[in-house]
Amino acid sequence: MNGGESEEVASAVASPLTPQEWKFSQVFGELAVGEEVQEVDIISTLEFNKSGDHLATGDRGGRVVLFEHTDMKEHGGNRRDLEMMDYSVSRHPEFRYKTEFQSHEPEFDYLKSLEIGEKVNKIRWCHTANGALFLLSSNEKTIKLWKVQEKKVKKIYDMNIDSSKAAGNVSAATSSVSSTPKQYFTYGSFPDCSYNCLSDDLSFPPGGIPSLRLPVVVSGDTSLVARSRRVYAHAHDYHINSVSNNSDGETFISADDLRINLWNLEISNQSFNIVDIKPVNMEELTEVITSAVFHPTRCNMLAYSSSKGSIRLIDLRQSALCDTHSKIFEEQEGPGSRTLFTEIITSISDIKFAKDGRYILSRDFMTLKLWDINMDAGPVATFQVHEHLRPKLGDLYDNDSIFDKFECCLSGDGQRAATGSYSNMFRVFGCALGSTEATFLEASKNPMRKLVHAPSKPSRSLCSSFTHVVRRGAESPGVDASGNSFDSTKKLLHLAWHPSENSIACAAANSLYMYYA
Questions:
Q1: What single-letter DSSP state applies at residue 387?
Q2: Scanning 180, 197, 264, 330, which has its CA 20 to 30 A from the CA of 310?
Q3: Which residues pair with 216 in a beta bridge?
Q4: Mean pLDDT computed over every residue of the chain
Q5: Other C-beta atoms within 10 Å of 7: how many?
Q6: Which of 296-310, 400-414, 462-476 has the lowest mean pLDDT?
Q7: Cα 477 versus chain centre, distance
Q8: What is the per-residue pLDDT for 93?
Q9: 95 forms bridges with which residues in the sheet?
């Protein structure tokens, strides 16, 4: 670590960020009183694009819904351009519905006698080109590249041409083509039988053809059209759990339980297997891949997590098949800490790189961990999310809630992290050294229910020594973070942080909530 970074860390320790007050911004798809949630309407993934001007959601019914920034619609430019002009932008980002399309349909694999659901598992934005939006969407087996573009709708206005205008136009055209008058019949046939329809003489009668009708086409309103440009299929034997775009803008990876494949966006019939952990004897299988993501700036690096709670960093320059990792990040178990549920609750469900690629955020069932890719001794910070549920792990195992896969996200500046929980609650933690921020919010129109500040262990600068910071959430058994009995049927699994604003979008069943600070 250089001197400049050391001063920044020391400054962060000396003056930690003040906790933010989160406010409700918008909600889409809110249920009316007494209305039941339809299974196909439950949101299964959401993602901001790189600029933050667009937001995409996917649901269990195979649909993709796009939202756009309101300033984009009103002024016709992106937010960054508007900030350099005289336009007054809103204090916090607001979005409006843009369009939706059916991404996947239910299928059946006759060779394996397996039903393939239409649920959209992942959405990843690609680089825009020529004013069109490109995104990848995947279900359990198939990935599709979509192009969404505005097109003018052309309509037939009238089928009849005004006879006076038609005669004048045709006469003028005839005089310029031929000065020799010809004898015509009503329907354009000639008395000279040697002159037939194959003649090169394309002249019209001087008076026109009254019976000829031509369509008049006019350009109408513009509409958004979504087209599938590529279909990447038949490359995974197991369910796809991750899709990640490369920073080179040309390739992406897809991962299932045992393999990671590398694709070129322009080639849909071929992929390269870069990670394969499938043993010769499946009885020797001890772990599976749970998530995979490319480094945000280095096109040769990617990370993937496993069900054993480890994160492996691999370099594509080492070999074509990355059997070995360049670094592994895992936390050693304490003596006597292993229980019946240890293997389940230590399985990592999601990992995300920070915007600069220096840190990795990981989520398992109990905790949220922050890792420094330059320090593989252990996480630099651990945030307790479900510690208050430890006495209820048996009940959560019985109703399968212990296998829920919660996602995580980092703010654009890397100062804060967020993840979901039960009772439609989500947590926001301060990542800066010395920060004790641990905010608990509910996905509703009144998100601020309780702000908890739990004192963390005194920490020193990373320049002097490695310090593992532990920040805790609620500790009361049997209740959630706000003191209420938790509801495991209401779970907030998916959320995303705006890349440049302090704004969070989260999915609670079929409703999309947005908050700002």
A1: G
A2: 264
A3: 158
A4: 81
A5: 12
A6: 462-476
A7: 34
A8: 77
A9: 69
- Take residue 16 and report the two structure tokens written for it: 């930690």
Phi, psi of 290 (to 5 degrees): -110, -25
Copy the structure tokens of residue 80. 């960054």
Q: Residue 399 and residue 196: Cα distance in Å, rounded?
A: 83
CB proximity list for 195: less than 8 A, separation 6 or greater: 201
Whether 313 and 301 have beta carbons less than 8 Å apart is answered as: yes
Distance in angstroms (rounded) separating the CA atoms of residues 358 and 158: 63
Mean pLDDT, residues 384-395 taken together: 93
Residues 6+ away with beta carbon under 8 Å from 24: 444, 445, 446, 447, 513, 515
CB of 24 closer than 8 Å to CB of 446: yes
Helix (H, G, I), strand (E, B) or coil at 254: strand
Q: 362 and 408 in contact (C-beta within 8 Å)?
A: yes
**End-to-end Cα, the chain, rounded Å:** 31
- Residue 148's identity, in one-letter code, is V
Number of residues assigned to the chain: 517
Task: Using alpha carbons, select from 95, 97, 86 the residue that is nearest to residue 51.
Answer: 95
Residue 426 pLDDT grade (very low, low, confident, very high; cuts 50, 70, 90): very high
| Whether the predicted pLDDT of 90 surpasses 90 | no
Other beta carbons within 10 Å of 39: 12
356-376 pLDDT tens trace = 999 999 999 999 999 999 998
* Structure-token match 């009316």, residue found: 32
Q: What angle do CA 446, 44, 93 make, to 5 degrees?
A: 45
Q: List, for residues 42-75, the tens digit of each pLDDT value.
A: 999 999 999 999 999 999 999 999 999 987 555 4
Query: What confidence tens digit (pLDDT) does each residue in 300-315 have?
Result: 999 999 999 999 999 9
What proportion of the chain, given as a percentage, has pLDDT over 70?
75
Sequence-ordered list of residues with C-beta below 8 angstroms from that of 93, at least 6 positions apart, any chain: 25, 52, 69, 79, 498, 501, 503, 516
Q: Residue ranges of the alpha helices (H) in 22-117? A: 70-75, 79-83
Confidence grade of residue 134 (pLDDT, cut at 50, 70, 90): very high
Q: How far apart are CA 136 and CA 56, in angstroms?
A: 11
The C-alpha angle with vertex 514 and arms to 424 and 105, in degrees rounded to 5, equals 75
pTM (2 decimals)?
0.78
Contact 368, 419 (CB under 8 A): yes
Q: What pairs with residue 428 in β-bridges?
A: 418, 439
CA distances to 50, 226, 292 from 245, rounded to whole Å, are 11, 20, 11
Q: Are 311 and 360 in contact (CB under 8 A)?
A: yes
Give me 119's structure tokens: 């649920």
- H/E stretch holding 328: strand 327-329
